[in-house]
Every structure is written in C-alpha cells, then in structure tokens.
C-alpha cells in the first residue's frame, strides 16, 4: 500500500476506530454533505473507498485539508462518536497551532525599517538589541509611573525589577496583566516582535499555547467585532478552531500601541461582553478583555505611551507595569555594531556619537540611535570626516528628513508642494488621535503622488473583508509628530487654511490646548521649539528647500513667560515649576531666546520629577544662561545615574585643574547640576535638595560646589542617607576659605 500522506493520517486513524457498521454509516452520511467551495465525493469513488486511509484521501482531495477535518468532526458528532470527535478536535487544534506558529515566525521575524522604500528586509534576530525594562510591582503604579514626564514617589515605592522579554511574564502564574510603557521610539513594537518570535520558535513563553497580537493602528479601523473575530484577524488564512479559546489560561492577548485606539474606556459594566462570540462595538470588546468580563483567565500585554496610562488605569486591576527605559550603555554600542555589520565602521561611528554628550544621551532612545546610525552611515559612505552632528532631537530628525528627501530631488518643485500637505495630514491625525489613514483621506489632502508618498508613508493592503481600500501610516509616530509641528510654522501651510472648517495652523491654539489638557502634544510642542531655532530655519531653507516662518517665536516666548507667572506682582516669587520648559528651551538651543524667557524669573521649584540624562542636560543648559537665578529647590526628584562603566566626554575646555574633591565620584547623580551651578555668572544663594535619594558621591560634588561658589549662602538637604563619609566630604568643602555658606540644614 502506498505511503499515506501525513496531512490525512490523523483522519485515517480516527476512521479506523469505527466499527464496520459505523464506517458504512459514515460513508452514507457523506453523500448528503454540502460543502461550500468544495466538491462532493462522487458516489462511485465513495463506494471504492473501502479502507479508512482511502476514504480519508478522497475527503482530502474533495474538501481540502481543513474541510475534510470539519466534515469528519460534524458527522462523528451526529453519530454520537464523542471520543473520536474529541480526538479529531484536539488534533485539529495541534495542527492549527503548528501552522499558526509558522505564520507568526514568518510575520514577525522579518521586517522593514524606515528605509522600507529601499526594499531591504531585516531579521529581528540580527537587529534586536537588549533594552532596559523595569517592572514595577504596584497595583496603583499607573498613577505615578511615567517616563520623562512622570513622577518619582518618595514613599511607598513599588518593588522594581529589571526584566527582559524572556522574564516579562512570571512562570506558573495565570491571568497576568502587564502594561509595557514607553515613550515614542523606545522600542515597544520591537519588544513585541521579539516576544512573538521567541514564542513561535519555542524558546520562550512556553506557558502559552497561543499568543494573539493586535496592532492597534490596524485595529482602529474596525467598528464592530467579537473576540473570535479579533483572533481570526491574527491568522487570516485559516479558520480558528473553536477549542482554541477554551483553554483560557494558555492564551496571551497583546495590544500593541494602545494609544492609537483613542478610547475613553468609560463603559457601564452591564454593557460589557462575556461571550467571545458576541459582536459589539470595538471599544466594548477591548474593554471587556481589559476588565476581565470575557476570557478572564487569559493573560494580557498592553503596550502604550505614558499619556494613555490614566485611561488604562481606570479599567485594570492587579496589573504590573514594565517601563522601557531605553538602551543601557552596553546596548548602545551593541546597536551600532548590529547596524553597521562592519566592526571598523561601527567603532568609528560609536566613538563619534560618544564624543558628543548630548548626542550620546539621545542614543538611549532606540529610534534616535537608528537615526544617528543612518546619518553617520551616509557620511562614512562619502569618505567624510565626522566633524559635527546635530545636538537636539529636532536637528537629528531634520538631518534624517534631508537624507530621506534626496530620493525626491528629481522634482524639487513637487516635493516643496507636497510637504505642506503631508504636514497637514500629520497634524490632523495628531489632533484626532489617529495614526492610520484611508485612501480617501490621502486623496483629500492631495497626497496621492506615487513617486513621493512611499518616501514618507507606509502603505498596507487592508485585510480581506475590510472595505477600506489601502491604508497608510507614517513610518513612526515620532515622525508624524515632527511633521505635525512643521504644519504650524511652514510658510506654505498658510495657503491650506480657509474658513470652511479646515484645520487651523494657529500656534496659540496648539500651545493653549497643551497647557490645559492635551499633554500628549508634548513631542509636537518640543519639535516646534526646535524648528523655530535660527539654525533649523536656515537648514530647512538651504538643505531641505522649505521656508519656516519665524513669526511664531513671539507667541512661543509669550506663552512660556505667561505659564510661569506672567506679569510679576510685588513680593511675588517668579519661578519655573514645569520641567518641560527646560526641555523646550534646550530644543531651541538659543542663548538669547532662553535669556528672554528666564529674564525676571529667580527660582526653580521642581517636585516629584524623574530627571533623565536629557532632562539634566536641559536643566544644566538653562542654568548656564540664567544669571538671575537665586534659588533652586528640588523635592522628591530622582536623577538617572550615568553608567559608572562609561566615561563622560568632557564638554568645553577649562584651564583650571581638577578640584581634589572631584576625583571621589566624578559622575555622581547630581554631577551635571553642580557643574552648571558653577558657571561664571551664577548668583545662586539657596540650594534645596530634599528627598532626592542623594548618596555619598553627591556629597563630593556638593563639597566642590560649596568650596568654589562665590554666593551660595544656604544649603538644605532633606535626605538621611548621606552617611558619615558624606558628611565628612561636606565638611571638607565647608572648611575652604572660599566657602560662603551661612545656613546648612
């Protein structure tokens, strides 16, 4: 007998379990079967199929592999053959799982970078670089957690554990809910890809039989669905067996980019769904999964930006938060090596990036590492010396845009006409919490230009059955926010504004909304300040070929002045209490503008802020331009520590030798702050560092500050962790003849 095909061996074995009489009854019932998109087995062939293996082969040829199994399961169920029905159902689930794993591996292993227009596919295995992920075990952490915009609790701190993609979920624990938080470009989607590939290859997350990953950008186009519908979209080429959802504990649902849904997540509990087959509005179905009214024993992984945490926090209980902090020191170098695949080029590029303190700090953010590598690769390919590179997020992005638009230089006039329309689309999407656009929206904005559109937007064919045509999205939200900011200051964008309800490019409306409620506009506002710098205006005109209006600078100046007290009153202390002010000023990076904003202000008062290296650099930049600063108060703030294995590049040349106290710990958490406070024009009188988790190394920095600062008269330290050594270091500074301190608390 010929060797039986593996695809039908399971069906053949099940038919062998029938008695001769039951086998004949099964064949008789086959004559009455009506199968859509399949052929009925001719009666003469059915009569010749006297053996189970022959009959299984006939069924496979007529109904197809999946159809044959479905028909057999239906008939055996009619015949009350429960054991055989369960056996086939179980085997069908196993077979489906194997196919699904293969599908997942193919879908998530290979991807295209932002340079997808060049057609280069990359492997997640060769490009994924280890991220620092901190898991916080605290049920209410969503009220305090955040990245650069969040706060640091001074008490009742949650337990923090550094995890990897392999340890994101705890073993032997059912129904876990993990919220993975990260700013745009921090690597949330790459982390999800890594999780999916590890599961598909069987190397990790083996506690799950199925992982269903929903891209929220795609999901946002869906109006109504059931949980079964969502699962089916994850594997569109095959029907999902009903038994898959029965083993809830073995299922992980992933919602990647939750903020793209723009849901309020306020829904009466009695309207939620408990049946995975029930079709309801998408928001209701998603909320039902989050609130655990449907498939409550399954696990969830939700990736989101910090701005969506509040709405998520209203509907989740018992979740743990994991925050992506970016690339640690070793990973930054590893990323350069993986990107260049040439050790010599990687070393040259990494040494250059590391020689620029600001640029190196930006490389903590994965998307910025990618942009820096992309730019340096272009320079190295021209045999150019890497003598200068951009210092702000905006300038790095503009350099990337310059490189990207070179592909459209054949028709420069079309590109200059195209860019304002692209910026209008970006801004419209940002205001509406929208990151994916349908074909009619592309046409409405006049962007249906086949030569230019692929440079800026990714095109994706809609899933079968979704009547939306092709859909488009910016290659990264970071870039959409950049173009949205450009909408407000491009001279050409004024031509697109009319009185018919079109999006208005009034920068005052943007800033007012950010101040009142739309904190998700932070990146747009930051880009706005970067684009309004004189350097950016000249670069855009000379290199990119677009004109940026400088008229918005006056509105931006008045807005910053107004948010910190406006017109002063007698006895009123004029202070800066918003950390983002310093970020915006660093992004513009202009001494005169910074002095105009800070002129008349005398105090810094920051509370419960987690100061990243970029934040510390922004604070330091502003302090150096701020001669009128008299008092600095930091309460409950934490300082991201420079990796002690790294050497911080020296910025600026100083003829003076190192102070003897500086060698103890040159890179203490407050190193950048203390260095800035020593600038020649400083008239600081009061420094308060209360509950800022200071240690002995901080006392070494403070000792240097006390010994050298000509006007510092009052120092308040509200920490109890300084230790005897720390106190001695402070005393050494106090004993210096140049110390002017009068009050120490």
UniProtKB/TrEMBL annotation:
Region (Disordered): 141-160
Segments forming domain Pyrin: 1-94
Record's compositionally biased regions (Polar residues): 146-158
Domain NACHT: 176-378
One GO CC annotation: canonical inflammasome complex
PANTHER family: NACHT, LRR AND PYD DOMAINS-CONTAINING PROTEIN 12, NACHT, LRR AND PYD DOMAINS-CONTAINING PROTEIN 3
Protein name: NLRP3 protein
